[in-house]
Amino acid sequence: MLSSIPDHIRSGLSILFVGYNPSLRSGETGHHYANPSNRFYRLLYASGLTDRLYTPSEDGDLLELGYGFTNIVSRPTKTADEITKEEYEQGRQTLREKIEAYRPYIVCFVGKGVYEQYSGRRNVGWGFQTEPVVPGVKEFVAPSSSGLVRMKLEEMADIFRQLRKALDAKV
C-alpha cells in the first residue's frame, strides 16, 4: 500500500492548494501533482502564479513563494471515485482544522468536487466563494488539474489568473 504524502503547509501562506487526494504516482514519488498528465504546475506558470515552470519534485520549494499543499483525503488512489464517504467525512474535519490553524490568505480547492465535499454545498461556480466555511479565509474553486479533465489549459489558466489578481491586489 502506498503511503500518504506530506503536506507542505505553514502559517502565513498566500495560497493553500487543496486536492482530492494523491495520485498513485504522487504516492510513489512523495510529491504533489506528480502524475505526468497532471497540468497543475503548467497552470501555475500559465496563470502567472510562478515565474517559471516548476516540477513535482520542487513542490516543497513553492513554500518559499507562499504556496502550500494538502489534500482532503491523504490516501493515494488511481481516481477520486475510489475515495469512500468515511474518508471524505474524516478529511473534511481534518482539512477544516488545518485551515483554522494555519489561516492561509486563500484556500484554492483544485476541483469543484473537492470544495463540494469540504463545504457540503452543491452547484458551486468557479472562483471566489461568497460565504467561506472558515470566516476570514478566502475560498477559491478552480478546475481540477487532472489530465482526465477535458477543459483546455488556457481556459483553466484564465480561472487561475483570478488568484494572481487577488494576490496582486492584497495590501
UniProtKB/TrEMBL annotation:
UniProt-recorded Gene Ontology molecular function terms: hydrolase activity, acting on glycosyl bonds
Enzyme class: hydrolase
Keywords of the record: DNA damage, DNA repair, Glycosidase, Hydrolase
Source species of the chain: Paenibacillus chartarius
Name of the protein: Mismatch-specific DNA-glycosylase
Pfam family, one: UDG
Entry keyword Hydrolase: yes
Entry keyword DNA damage: yes
Residue stretches making up the Uracil-DNA glycosylase-like domain: 9-164
EC nos: 3.2.2.-
Origin superkingdom: Bacteria
